[in-house]
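Hallway conversation turned thread

IA: we were arguing at lunch whether anyone had actually written out Binding-protein-dependent transporters inner membrane component end to end. Turns out nobody had. So, for the record, here is the sequence (331 residues) and right after it the structure tokens. Reply here if something looks off.
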Amino acid sequence: MSKFQRFLLKRLAISVLLTLVAVSVIFVVLRLLPGSPFEALVTSGNLNQEQIDEIRAMYGLDQSIWKQYINYLGSLLTFQFGYSILRSQPVWEVLEPRLINSLILLVPALVTTAILSSVLGMYAGWNRGSRLEKASIVSTTLLRSTPVFITAIFFIIVFAYNLEIVPALGMRSIRATPDGYLETFVSLDFLHHYLLPFTVAVLYYSGDFLLLARNGVVEKRGSEFLKLHRAKGLTEMEQLARAGRNSMLPILTYFTLRLGMIFQGLILLEVVFSWPGIGRELVLAIQQQDYPLVQAAVFIMALAVIIANLAADVLYAYFDPTVSTNGGGSA
């Protein structure tokens, strides 16, 4: 077995362990919360205690904590997430459209900002000390350090309420009744609602990619291989292209990590814009203590992040021969 294969097996084992820890933590935390998902039904008089006991037995909540935990792990391993307690629907039927809504919003935003910000960062790094470099660093750092809900509220006030260019909330008009994903996402009404949260997401992600690309080009600018290209008579733009290509690995690694985190949604962004994504759904499920829904959502999010981290480590170790595969991950 080669060093890289051993490294891969080690990373897979760590990923499985991290997944187990993540799902175990959410199982324990949910059951430590005060109250239960049935309190509101009892106090409102919709159900009596006998009916509540029947529902608890139906969901296995009357069993010992260890038996609940074993059943919980078994359901996750088979991807049988059960039924939402308060919605009386299969959990996946609740989560699937919300997850797709989050991905439709955030994946294009991430790809757009990765391309545009990386190109701008490379150009700024090549022209050190220029006004472009200073302005781009200040603006993107400001946007990245500002909480996303602050930026979202500011854009809503300016573009939705003052200028009335775009709607403030939601994914489509109240009167819209699309049938299927195609009619939902391929329409002018959706595009009208999409522009504002998409723009805020692009700006939120932009700072990291710009700084990574800028720093990578700055490091490569004085390297020997560029001096050789300069001596061969390459133009400034051709040299920049080669410097940028040689500084892409950290950007690709960070993109992979961010892609995994997208499965969490941008919770505050979704809440501010009333975007029906998985992050907003998770907040509501936690408030209602809907155990199956929260457990399934957190499992999907944790699994996506851990797989993305694994992919980033493997990519870095595979493409960068200077990274050791004996004991570690990416440097």
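OS: looked through it. DSSP finds 15 helices and no strands in the chain.
IA: good, adding that to the notes. The first helix runs from residue 3 to 32.
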